[in-house]
Amino acid sequence: MTILRKSLAVLGATALVAGLAACSTPTSGPGTGAGAESASTEPIRFGVALPQTGNNAQYGEYFTQGFELALKQLNDEGGINGRAVELQYEDTQADPAQAPAVAQKFVDDPTILASLGDFGTPASAAASPIYQAGGLVQFAFSASASTVTDPGDFVFATWVSQQFEAPRLADFAATKGSKQAVFFHDTDWGADTHGFFADRSEEIGQGTVYETAYDPKSTDFRPLLLTAAAANPEVIVLISYAADGALITSQARELGIDVPIVGISSNYNQQFIELAGPAAEGFETLSYFTPSNPDPSVQQFVSDFSAEYDVATPSDYAIRAYDALKIVAWAAAQDPSRDGIRTALATGTDIPTILYGPITFSENRRVTDAEQFALVVKDGEFVLAE
Amino acid sequence: MDILLAGIISGSTYALIALGVSLIYGVSNIVNFAHGATFAIGAMLGWFVASVLGFPLWAVIIVVIAATALLGWIIHFIAIKPLGSAPPIAALLTTFAVGIILDNTSQRIFGAETRRFPALLEQGNLELFGFRFGTLGLVILGVSLACFVALALFITRTKYGRAIRATAQDSEAAQQMGIPVARIQAASFVIASALGGIAGVLVGMYYSNVSPTIGFMAGVQGFAAATLGGLGSLAGAVVGGLILGIAEAFGVSIWGDSARQLITFGVLIGVLWIRPGGILGRVPAVGSEPMTGTFFGAGRPLTLKPWQYAVLACAGILLVFPASDYILRAGSLVWIYALFALSLTIVSGFAGQIVLGQAGALAIGAYTSALLMTKAEWPFVPSFLAAGLVAAVISVILVAPTWRLRGHYVSMATLGTGAFIAALALNLPWLTNGARGIFAIPRPEIFGFEIASAPAMYLFTFAILVVFMLLVGRLGKSHLGRTWAAVREDEVAAASSGIHPAAYKSLAFGIGSAIAGFAGALYASQLTYIEPAQFGINLSVLAVTIVVLGGMRAPMGVMVGALVLVAVPEIFRPLYEWRYFFYGALLLALVIFRPQGLWARVEKVPTWLHAPLQRTRALVGRNSE
Amino acid sequence: MTAIPLLAVHGLHKSFGGLHVVDDVELSIAEGEVVSIIGPNGSGKTTTLNLISGVLRADAGSVRLAGTELRHFKPHQIAAQGLTRTFQNGRVIGNLTVRDNVLVGLEAVQRVGRPLPALRGIPGIRWIPLLAETVLAIVGTPALRRQNVLDNAAVDAQIARFGERLAPRTENFSFTLSYANRRRTEIARALISQPRLLVLDEPTAGMNQTETAEVMHQLLDLKAGGQTMLLVEHKLDLVMTVSDRVIVLDNGRIIAQGTPEQVRNDPRVIEAYLGKRHAPAPDAQPAVAQPAHSQPTGATA
């Protein structure tokens, strides 16, 4: 009886191991991607690592909007050199612990020619060494840290380094008032951005009467705002995302703090207006994107996007995802192989994007800088500020 | 003054959540991890009914109360009732699983986006004695106090309330007196969940933003408030909530928002150090003598013959050949988590202390090794050893005063300590690089070989796991295993036999933390990037889940548990955004059907539990004539 | 009686929330003496034992074992001083075998494999002996193995005390044991460290008459072997047979003490047990001796 049961336990455990092994893709073995280009009718496939569940799932939803629109357009136009485009989504919850396995999964699959994602620096950074070792491009379109492309020449990033954007925000804030209160994310991105921001503020002699880091998941900002208000700032600066930026803005207005509020570009999101409600009126931000940009490709994108989704304006996240797929597809059109995409990205010039206009990757595979527009919320919409 | 007021109002929302936690704890001796999820459902449903359907406030509240009350009944029916006499830890896991299911269901139904909760009330600002009152704040304060008063009256003045109190005091005696204990427990879930739902609506109105994932943190703050005030005490829940709210408001306004968790959990740990039963709770001077023996988990681990273990080990090694790099990469994470959970085989399985803060030790290990390798440029091996040592020393010092505590207080105090350590990592940027995290942590290197490839990493982590499993297994079979068992099952009897319980609990915890620290070093090298947010309470709960589900009395349990719990989310990938829903469902099912763990022989509970129970009952009955 | 009693208790006080449960209890036990505490339910007998054995902290008073003040000692330190005990409801370690249960009792005195006992009392420093113990447990020295053989023999000797009652179940898990066998296991656990003072809290509770008689004989054997004992017991037959002296508690106070014969005839005892109306007039002492003896024996258990 017990011997039988023990043997069953051993058998069961062995079966589990064997089962795990069987789960592996039939075409196992490290894929270099070199073999995939020969079959020219095969679809071109890209992997997408993103949060579909968990705390950051909403950003995964924004990404998916952008990806699906770009994918539809690509395939409607006949794919890449006649080959259909497919995306393989894998959920990582933007969790650095889950990201390496997903990266390895993409690396293992020779039909995948490049990977897009993940959300934020942590999950992207945890996956980078695997992409680098596997020779698969990691297109980290949502990672902002200054070190994000350090792991090697297969890692690309489109987030303009905060060293350009943050000082501009400092200059912009100085035009609104000479004493500022600064709220910034207590994340790698927030700390980086704030660093550059504070340096510039000091340089131009802008007074900072209050500054604080905060957890983006916090909900009660009243104690912070009350302390800030006691220091009598003339302008409040938000280095925030749209959801928490909106929360701070609405709680500030509710407490009767009526100084101008300016925010960094990631606040450019219709969600900001929805969440802050009437309090959003007058909020200003510097954005790379403006729906009123006369560029025909931008206008086309805006109308396509609103035709596809029931949203007034596309979010920053959706635009970044849309651009990411378009850029990688552009590179795949040059040479549909893993190495080819890397080379095309590294050497290509003036690659078209919606967010930044034409871009060229710098020596360290990043977008150096791009023009920004001052936007203001007026009647529930982001419009160009005078 | 305004800050005090903001603290009181946010404190009263904590109090409202804590009331539910405390009520359920008082009646059923269960820490309900699904409570936060119920709160979040209340908030999201409130948003839906108010914003999408456009109902007025009173209708919103009625709908939410009805729905969350029903939810409470369902939680009790599917996650508590089937457990019968399984140990309380099983209820912790089933409610945690229900929490996962609820959060994911809510995300699928309402969408993952953060939503604006409509105001529903005229916003007005009054000014009185230098206080600025928002009407909303007043309403929240009023509703919280009203809920407390109503609940207190219900419990002290009504017949049903008397039954609840009787059940809270001694559920077995209450059962014998003809009180329908199961129904009373269900009622406590219904009431508590409805309170959670109301809290969801109020918090939604107050903060104006809601999202499906706000529950977990709110739940933890509710636990912290309830524990602070004294678990099971309703007045304690209110006092605890207010203290926490006020301490946070002032602390945050002085040190900034990053210090919030530091304050929350610092206050929790500090209070438990001074008052082990919470502010209004009492620790009974002498625990009632266990009538039936506190037979913590009936499961006895399976034992195999040496050759059978050898076969398993070979299977583990030979997996390298058929498996893809993806399987191996996922596999090494499985083994790292297994090693992490092995720390609890000693602390929880052997010594019986349910520790909910092992992510703290993991974090210390990961940071120690990462900092030594990147900043001091130490090689891997000494960094690895230092990781275990530092993790053990810091954890043991922080947790030392906890060993005076009993049962759930140990769990809550260690939960606080673990979260406190993660908060420290965030608040010491000069040392840990704060929120920026540590990049480019080198892979392990041994004797000049860099272990970077997927098969190498897999074999390396597997080998380390097996070595530690052998060591832990040996400890379990030594006289120390016996000593720990005595402490685990009857601390008083163990002490009266000459065993110093605190010393041996501390020893178990120290060894466990060292193992968690070693796991942390491997974790850092596997991920190559760490930041404080990775070491949250979820990770601590995962370790407990692994060890309980696998079977906590034998090292093999962690292998089985980690294979199921870490591999299942990978295997469920074809389910896309539903995978965590099914993960929760599977966890729930496994715990209900195998509360004693997978790596255990099933023993029929009734035969040994019921006979002695009745006999002692009869005896006590006679004695007290 | 020797000059220094083995156990000397002075002015022991304990109150729970204003209720004096133990009120100024004084007692002393000489080497080799067997003393019983009796009294109605709620009279503070078990609390007194808990105070002496360190399970509860006394509010005031002193407890000396062979001259060493125990009042600020913790239970495990008291056990190491040579005072071990059993509990009212048989506190065995359910998930250990009977053998392991009894071996647990050796922890109070075992030194092999548990180095540097002197450092154990010092917070922080105690990690040195603890870690040394862990290392030895993993390594498993020859000395440790030899000691294990001796320890197991000692366990068998203790279990043999109960004849065939417990011996066949030595390797069974103790949660499978009958109530009586749990008590036997507990007594063996308390005895294996060869304590100077054995404290027994109702060792025959829940036993039938045959089993009670067996325990009585075993206690008499122990007494014959010179074992000092402090006993709380309801069954007066057993108390009167085994004890050298009996102390009677009521409402936390000692109301009478003396030889079994003296106590049996003490009117205050009879009053405490049976209530006032049974109490004889002070001048009519001998008349009620018989009912006082038989009634409690039959009615309480």
Automatic annotation (TrEMBL), chain A:
This is Leucine-binding protein domain-containing protein. It holds the Pfam family Peripla_BP_6. PROSITE patterns: PROKAR_LIPOPROTEIN. Residues 1-21 form the signal peptide. CDD domains: PBP1_ABC_HAAT-like. PANTHER family: LEUCINE-SPECIFIC-BINDING PROTEIN, PERIPLASMIC BINDING PROTEIN OF ABC TRANSPORTER FOR NATURAL AMINO ACIDS. Residues 43-370 form the Leucine-binding protein domain. Belongs to the leucine-binding protein family. Coiled coil: none annotated. InterPro entries: BCAA_transport, Leu-bd, Leu_Ile_Val-bd, Peripla_BP_I. Keywords: Amino-acid transport, Signal, Transport. It comes from the Bacteria.
TrEMBL record, chain B:
Pfam families: BPD_transp_2 (PF02653). Its main location: membrane. InterPro entries: ABC_transp_permease, LivM-like. It comes from the Bacteria. The keyword Repeat does not apply. This is ABC transporter permease. The chain crosses the membrane at residues 6-26, 33-50, 56-78, 90-110, 130-155, 186-208, 228-250, 262-287, 307-328, 335-368, 380-400, 412-431, 451-472, 507-529, 541-568, 580-599. The lineage of its organism: Bacteria, Bacillati, Actinomycetota, Actinomycetes, Micrococcales. PANTHER family: HIGH-AFFINITY BRANCHED-CHAIN AMINO ACID TRANSPORT SYSTEM PERMEASE, HIGH-AFFINITY BRANCHED-CHAIN AMINO ACID TRANSPORT SYSTEM PERMEASE PROTEIN LIVM. It is found in: Cell membrane. The keyword Membrane applies. Keywords: Cell membrane, Membrane, Transmembrane, Transmembrane helix. It is a multi-pass membrane protein.
Automatic annotation (TrEMBL), chain C:
Residues 279-301 are annotated as: Disordered. It comes from Microterricola pindariensis. Pfam families: ABC_tran (PF00005), BCA_ABC_TP_C (PF12399). SMART domains: AAA (SM00382). Keywords: ATP-binding, Nucleotide-binding, Transport. Residues 7-276 form the ABC transporter domain. InterPro entries: AAA+_ATPase, ABC_AA/LPS_Transport, ABC_transporter-like_ATP-bd, BCA_ABC_TP_C, P-loop_NTPase. One of its GO terms (molecular function) is ATP binding. This is ABC transporter ATP-binding protein. Residues 281-292 have a biased composition (Low complexity).
